[in-house]
Amino acid sequence: MTTTEPSKPESGSGLTVVVALLVNAGIAVLKAIAGLITGSAALFAEAAHSVADTITEVLLLTALRRSSRPADRRHPFGYGKERYFWSLMAAISIFASGSVLAIAEGIRSLSGEQEQTRPEVAYLVLGLAFVLESVSWLRAVRQIRREAAEEQTPFFHYLRSVDDPTAKTVLLEDSGALIGLLLAFLGVGLHQLTGSGVWDAAASLAIGVLLAVVAYVLGRSNRALLIGQQANRRLIDRIRRRLRERPEVEVVVDLLTMSTGADRVLLCARLDFDDTLTVGELERACVRIDAELREEFVELDEIFLEPVPRSDPELRARVLARYGRMP
What we know:
CATH architecture of the largest domain: Up-down Bundle
Number of helices: 10
Protein name: Cation diffusion facilitator family transporter
Subcellular location: Membrane
Radius of gyration: 25 Å
Number of domains: 2
Number of strands: 3
Keywords: Membrane, Transmembrane, Transmembrane helix, Transport
Pfam families: Cation_efflux (PF01545)
Distance between the termini: 23 Å
CATH class of the largest domain: Mainly Alpha
Order of helices and strands: HHHHHHHHEEHEH
GO molecular function: monoatomic cation transmembrane transporter activity
């Protein structure tokens, strides 16, 4: 049996993305201008970095808008996974628009000695960019910390397991941006001190590698969600506990979950009910269990309750193959 709820209201993800978009767009222009004035490869790499981050924010806003559409005939489980797809595209953008260009700029700079001019402009722009990026970074940290506190989960554990990639993407790209700015500052400074453009080029290459790592981490987490990652382990354990407490349920034979969007979970529970229940009593028990689960666990978007015998050999074999043991 299933029931579909309307899409849940968005959290602060939209504002977090908009703040990051405005910050990165402005910083990209400043870095590009500073790169032209100073001839710094690291600044050009950082300009590419900010362009990639700006494209990322546009993709994340697209994800927020498209994933909020209600379920329809063609997509009965809704469009929640649109968020994972566009977040995966954002990871690809970071690699293609940021990492590749930064590495290419570093290689180009190594092939010919680059003259450094007016390094004070570079320091000014990098310092301003660090302040602005910190504003966006703090916004993302506060949002994730608030959500982790609501879930009563440690910050880093929540960051690893969260099914909403939006704030996580902003946090990781802003963290990468702050590290990239420090690398650029180091490259410009060492170039000025030594007179060798190798340091500037090395900073550009390091920024490119950094962006590749950020893109890989984001791509891997969104890949898992797109494939069909199970819900948070704590949520699953709480649901299992509630089902076991129901007097009509003798055994929870199997519990399948899948994240279908941010804070949206599909649940399939295979239950061995009391054999003395009549068909009518079984139907009413399923209705009650469904309603109670929805009331307690707002994340549950679709619920399927399947009465099964615990002794069925084929079902036991599938459960053992999946978990290695019976739940």
